[in-house]
Write a structure and sequence with these properties.
The chain is of the alpha+beta class and 111 residues long. The protein has three helices and five strands, in the order αβββαβαβ. 36% of the residues lie in helices and 33% in strands.
Length: 111
């Protein structure tokens, strides 16, 4: 086997491994309990209301939500056009932060 053929085979194997990992992150779903509270980003900012939700999410979504344990997120009204979203004043965003993210169980459901 030539060096080029070995390299080509290795690249195909690597690509397969990367794609397999992406599919795993996308397809494995978990029921997750997310506890959220308002976060005051400034003196006049609106805050989300405290809530507890049980959500089905994949590992990609879980990783994103874990990030909101140490950094706040912003929400905005649903149904805005792209232009309305771009023109929405900073003060109109509602801010929140997760108090806890708990994996309850793995689920077979795909949403």
């Amino acid at each position: 086997m030539t060096k080029n053929k070995k390299l080509e085979d290795q690249l195909k194997r690597n690509k397969f491994q990367f794609e397999r990992g992406k599919m795993f992150l996308k397809n494995q779903r978990y029921l997750v309990r997310v506890e959220t509270e308002g976060f005051q980003w400034g003196t006049d900012n609106l805050m989300v209301e405290e809530s507890v939700e049980i959500i089905s999410m994949n590992l990609d979504e879980l990783i994103k939500n874990l990030g909101f344990l140490h950094k706040p997120y912003k929400t905005y009204p649903v149904g805005l056009t792209e232009k309305e979203y771009e023109e929405l004043p900073y003060e109109k965003y509602e801010w929140g932060i997760h108090k806890s993210v708990v994996i309850l169980q793995q689920t077979e459901d795909e949403y």
